[in-house]
Backbone:
């Protein structure tokens, strides 16, 4: 096993790479069919939350208002956190198998609320040794600043996986070895051939 500080860094997006996302379930419970019909004020508040520009309490108040105060705040939090699912199939085994060769770190647009849920639901979160998150960086992928924060903290990763093409393209412009995530088998194969 490589020494901890000798393992090469692999950056992992969370939703769609590590954890499944169930936005449809969340919106259906609120009576919406798609994310696009949610009120603009709420979508803007979600971006502020993920950039760390607002408090959980203020965001929750807006959430309550736009849903007509039909739900308790506890119910709203439960519904919102239900969006975060369990592991992407096969990722737990792939990360466990590769963790002696690579140091995995999160690189994600997320809020503190959702990060707590990710850690609770991801079977391999204990093998992820750090991360750069939008709510701490004050910036969201594909904005340049959050990539700069990652580089200052961890350097350029040996590989980066994200399910969002725009995020990967922004990374490639900086010289990162970015891969649009397909499945755990492809993820494993890419990393296995790198080492």
Residues:
């Amino acid at each position: 096993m490589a020494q901890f500080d000798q393992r090469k860094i692999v950056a992992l997006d969370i939703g769609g790479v590590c954890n499944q996302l169930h936005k449809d379930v969340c919106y259906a419970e609120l009576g919406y069919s798609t994310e696009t019909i949610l009120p603009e004020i709420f979508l803007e508040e979600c971006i502020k939350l993920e950039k760390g520009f607002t408090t959980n309490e203020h965001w929750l108040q807006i959430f309550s208002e736009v849903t007509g105060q039909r739900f308790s705040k506890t119910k709203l939090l439960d519904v919102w956190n239900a969006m975060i699912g369990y592991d992407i199939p096969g990722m737990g085994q792939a990360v466990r198998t590769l963790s002696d060769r690579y140091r995995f770190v999160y690189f994600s647009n997320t809020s503190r609320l959702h990060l707590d849920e990710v850690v609770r639901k991801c079977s391999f979160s204990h093998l992820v040794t750090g991360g750069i998150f939008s709510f701490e960086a004050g910036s969201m992928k594909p904005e340049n600043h959050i990539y700069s924060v990652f580089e200052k903290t961890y350097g350029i990763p040996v590989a980066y996986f994200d399910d969002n093409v725009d995020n990967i393209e922004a990374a490639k412009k900086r010289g990162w070895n970015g891969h649009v995530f397909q499945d755990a088998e492809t993820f494993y194969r890419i990393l296995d051939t790198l080492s």
